[in-house]
Write a structure and sequence with these properties.
The chain is α+β, with helices and mostly antiparallel strands. It folds into four domains: 10-49 and 123-233, Distorted Sandwich (Calcium-transporting ATPase, cytoplasmic transduction domain A); 246-311 and 724-789 and 806-946, Up-down Bundle (Calcium-transporting ATPase, transmembrane domain); 318-343 and 581-716, 3-Layer(aba) Sandwich (Rossmann fold); 346-579, Calcium-transporting ATPase, cytoplasmic domain N, CATH 3.40.1110. It is built from 35 helices and 28 strands. The strands form four sheets. Strands 10, 11, 12, 13, 16, 17, 18, 19, 20, 21 and 22 form an eleven-stranded mixed β-sheet that branches. Helix 32 packs parallel to helix 35. Residues 1-6 have low confidence and may be disordered. GO terms for molecular function: ATP binding; ATP hydrolysis activity. Keywords: ATP-binding, Cell membrane, Membrane, Nucleotide-binding, Translocase, Transmembrane, Transmembrane helix.
Length: 952
């Protein structure tokens, strides 16, 4: 496909200029030859995907891991040795099975087909009505070309980007692109500045958006990958997926283990040959060492641990799509949260009302008509509260206006949820009236609409004329009759709502209690001050007015603003997408955990600032303006400038998809681990770029979900913080079982390496026995350690450095130290059994060694539950899985000694009770050592604390 040679800023051009630039004709549309030429020039109107990795290459990549490569080499050499000796190569077969299993596990995790582009394609309209050769026809959306004249009507999805050339009461939902749920009014005539934000280009339509109401005609200006939707598709495919912190740490661990084991093998081989050792014996020793050094069960244990973490997160309303995301959550340092629907309810709520004499505060959540109207009256310098709605005539008439000058519907669904059909702002007015027990269905019946003039950008208000029939009908509800008695007895009434400035300009009177007075300049100034106050709270503000009419033929529009003012001012009403009640607590909790919250929204700066202030996202010690950036300001910065300032910014407003992506990248360049939330198509590139992409499960598009690592089932910011706690717990448990497994492995390697120098007749452990230890007697308790409950202080500390090595904070030193102790203990046992003079011990020394190593690990697992608390101080039933796994695994180990088929397969011998006593006795030595370290460490900490106290 060839790119368009014409790329002006279409929203800047007048209609005639756009038509001329594309050589189109709104009267007849394109001709057949033009369509053919443009299909060759621009290509089909569809999104195209770049070629990714094939499934075969993903499978091959699984076997390039250094640990698996070393195991494959061990299996190959072991098979040759066994075949030369005329034996079945069961060690090689077992190792090969482990290699294949690990490869399959890795493949399953990585082979998820990239579905974000497919989800984007599903957003394209299947058919579109166009004008070509003077005829209206319906064609598949993929055949639309630049310059086509497309008809737009309510309910359709826009098939391409285009410049409006006609619009009648047109409203479009652009949330998929801008992230904001409110419908946007569209107009054909106005033009806009070149740097106008995407959400403010009111004369443009964009592919994938939804027409809510009205009709129009559009000149297609971009198709396929040249549309705004196509640009997002390009951004998605250009994002390079980086390894998660866990994947990086596991890579480092693999390299360290392989390099360390190879060095150790080389040293043992060199010393053994220097001492004229038997090459075959040394080779067998080396093979056993190599198998012992590799924690074969570790990948499976980590996979299961992450899977268990996902199950716990689902119970907390977070669905994990990619397993490594579980651990990455524990490393998050910054949460970039969308405003609408995550920090806020994504439901417009009326919160403040100002009439001439009253200030009303409204409570309640969402569209459910439950809440309190707290009415306060200003009398001189006194504030009189605890008034009822029946004492406030001004409020009653204003609520009546909100019901009658309204095109939305409020409904209760089958599952007892309240929803709005129509404009969310108008829905908020219906909910407000419902809180005062005033209902649209009642008022519409007794005040039937006679005529109306809808909201337009030029007029900036909506007005209706209704007939007043309440007093003539005997069964009129009391609430309706009471309010009707407050109104003029005229047969008709005009109600209006809209921009406060416009409504106020048409008013010459004001409602003061039960009286109507001439409005004064001081009253107008007070109204403007109230308007400014609500604006600073980031609210959408509506002014209300009414007028009594003798004749229904009177124009509700009153034609122009030059007409004589004749309306009666009722008051101001502030509406906004209110913050979630639990979001503030969640923000505070994340701050105490050292996690920064950053709001990124397509909404206006003032609205974003007000929400951020309510949620305490902004730092009180710094000027608010220094902590905010807009999309235009980001445009003026290069990547270095944005990176330098990104750590100081807490709110980004009026941003585009490119801006969101740049923000995430800037934070990542600063070393942050970024979680990014989003629900729209516009969020997908940033979701994919972020270390943790978090999509909304309720309001999210398919595109955002496919690009994400995690989906919030309740669209709630608090769920992110809960998931972060689970992620920290998972990472703590991963470190816990890594130190448990690797401590054992180091001990095994040391014990096996000593064999040639102790004069023993054979290697104490065969590769098959080592695999049994690493997979079963180590693996099963390791899985139980993976579900160890979180520590109380897990969310009271800052995140650990995501760049830290897996062996950081003493883990590496612990593994070496315990490994040496374990190895020396095993060497002492082998020496004792082999040189004891007891023929039975000398015959069974390998099985004694094998059994002791396995049982010692059971005690080690119990000790690894805590770094500071002793085993006896921990409740054994707080992790019953570990208790069961220790008993179960010990039983399995004994089965290898006393069940004949297993004994034959693993090459073990039945031990006497005395020999078992020896095994259990030596096993306790490691546990005692670990527990003694805890006692010494606690004594040292207590001593340091007392020294610090005495010095202070």
């Amino acid at each position: 496909m060839t790119n368009s040679p014409i790329k002006p800023a279409w929203h800047v051009l007048k209609i005639e200029e756009a038509i001329t630039a594309l050589d189109s004709n709104p009267a007849i549309g394109l001709e057949a030859w033009q369509v053919s030429d443009r299909q060759g020039l621009y290509g089909r109107n569809e999104l195209t995907a770049k070629v990714g990795r094939s499934r075969l290459s993903i499978l091959i990549d699984q076997f390039t891991n250094v640990m698996l490569l070393m195991l494959m080499a061990v299996a190959f050499v072991s098979a040759i040795l066994d075949l030369q000796a005329g034996e079945f190569p069961k060690d090689a077969v077992a190792i090969a099975a482990i290699v294949i299993l690990n490869g399959i596990l890795g493949y399953v995790q990585e082979s998820r087909a990239e579905a974000a582009i497919a989800a984007l394609k599903r957003m394209a309209a299947p058919n579109v009505r166009i004008l070509r050769d003077g005829k209206v026809s319906e064609i598949p959306a993929v055949e639309v070309v630049v310059g086509d004249i497309v008809f737009i009507e309510a309910g359709v999805q826009v098939a391409a980007d285009g410049r409006l050339i006609e619009a009648v009461n047109l409203k479009v939902r652009e949330g998929a692109l801008t992230g904001e749920s409110q419908g946007v009014n569209k107009f054909a005539e106005p033009t806009f500045n070149e740097d106008e934000a995407l959400g403010d280009r009111r004369n443009m339509l964009f592919q994938g958006t939804e027409v809510l109401q009205g009709r129009g005609m559009m000149l297609v200006t971009a198709t396929g990958m040249q549309t705004e939707l196509g640009k997002i598709a390009n951004l998605l495919q250009d994002v390079e997926i980086e390894e998660t912190p866990l994947q990086k740490r596991m890579g480092e661990l693999s390299k360290a283990l392989v390099i360390g084991s190879l060095i150790f093998v080389a040293i043992v081989m060199a010393i053994g040959l220097w001492r004229n050792g038997n090459f075959i014996n040394l080779l067998n020793t080396s093979l056993s060492m190599a198998v012992a050094a590799v924690p074969e069960g570790l990948p499976a244990v980590i996979t299961v641990t992450l899977a268990l973490g996902t199950q716990r997160m689902v119970r907390r309303k977070a669905l994990i799509r990619k397993l490594p995301a579980v651990e990455t959550l524990g490393s998050v340092t910054t949460i970039c949260s969308d405003k609408t629907g995550t920090l806020t309810q994504n439901k417009m709520v009326a919160e403040n009302i100002f009439t001439a004499n009253y200030a009303i505060q409204v409570s309640g959540v969402g569209y459910e008509p439950l809440g309190e109207l707290t009415i306060s009256r200003v009398a001189g310098d006194m504030l009189i509260s605890d008034l009822t709605i029946h004492e406030c005539t001004e409020l009653q008439i204003l609520l009546t206006a909100s019901l009658l000058c309204n095109d939305a519907y409020l409904q209760k669904t089958a599952n007892n949820q309240w929803k709005v059909i129509g404009d969310p702002t108008e829905g908020a007015l219906l909910t407000l009236a419902g809180k005062a027990n005033l209902w649209q269905s009642q008022f519409a019946k007794y005040f039937p609409r006679v005529s109306e003039v809808p909201f337009t950008a030029e007029r900036r208000l909506m007005s209706v004329i209704v007939a007043s029939q309440t007093m003539a009908i005997e069964d009129t509800p009391e609430a309706v009759r009471a309010i009707a008695s407050l109104l003029s007895p005229s047969p008709y009434l005009l109600f209006a709502k809209g921009s406060p400035e416009v409504v106020l300009e048409r008013c010459d009177r004001i409602q003061l209690g039960n009286q109507i007075s001439v409005i004064s300049e001081s009253q107008k100034q007070a109204i403007n001050a109230q308007n400014d106050l609500l604006a600073t709270k980031g609210m959408r503000i509506l002014g209300f007015a009414y007028q009594d009419l003798a004749d229904a033929d009177q124009d509700p529009d009153q034609d122009t603003l030059a007409s004589e003012p004749s309306w009666i001012w009722l008051g101001l009403l502030g509406i906004r997408d209110a913050v979630r009640l639990e979001a503030l607590a969640a923000v505070k909790r994340s701050q105490s955990a050292g996690i920064h919250t950053t709001m990124i929204t397509g909404d206006h700066r003032l609205t974003a600032q007000a929400i951020a202030r309510d949620l305490q996202i902004l730092d009180r010690d710094r000027p608010e303006q220094e902590q905010m950036l807009t999309g235009k300001e980001i445009e003026a910065m290069d990547d270095e400038e944005l990176t330098a300032i990104a750590g100081q910014i807490h709110v980004y407003a009026r941003v585009s998809p490119e801006h969101k992506l740049r923000i995430v990248q800037a934070l990542q360049r600063r070393g942050e681990v970024v979680a990014m939330t989003g629900d729209g198509v516009n969020d997908a590139p940033a979701l994919k770029q972020a270390d943790i992409g978090i999509a909304m499960g309720i309001a999210g598009t398919d595109v955002s979900k496919e690009a994400s690592d995690m989906i919030l089932l309740d669209d709630n910011f608090a769920t992110i913080v809960a998931a972060t706690e689970e992620g920290r717990t998972v990472y703590a448990n991963i470190r816990r079982f890594i130190k448990y497994i690797l401590g054992s492995n180091v001990g095994e390697v040391i014990a096996i390496a000593s064999t040639p120098f102790l004069g023993l007749s054979a290697v104490p452990l065969t590769p098959l026995q080592i695999l049994w230890m690493n997979l079963v007697t180590d693996g099963v308790p390791a899985l139980a350690l993976a579900v160890e409950p979180s520590e109380p202080e897990v969310m009271q500390r800052s995140p650990f450095n995501p760049q830290e090595n897996i062996f950081a904070r003493g883990l590496g030193w612990y593994i070496l130290r315990i490994g040496v102790v374990f190895g020396l203990q095993t060497i002492a046992l082998m020496e004792l059994a082999y040189n004891s003079g007891n023929p039975l011990w000398q015959e069974h020394w390998q099985t004694i060694t094998f059994t002791t190593l396995c049982i010692a690990q059971m005690g080690h697992a119990l000790a690894c539950r805590s770094d500071s608390k002793l085993i006896m101080e921990l409740n054994p039933f707080s992790n019953p899985y570990l208790l069961f796994s220790v008993i179960f695994t010990t039983g399995l180990q004994l089965a290898l000694l006393y069940v004949e088929p297993l004994r034959q397969f693993f090459g073990t011998q039945a031990l006497t009770m005395g020999e078992l006593g020896l095994c259990f006795g030596f096993s306790m030595l490691l546990v005692l050592w670990v527990e003694a370290e805890k006692v010494i460490w606690r004594s040292w900490q207590k001593y340091r604390s007392s020294q610090s106290s005495s010095q202070s």
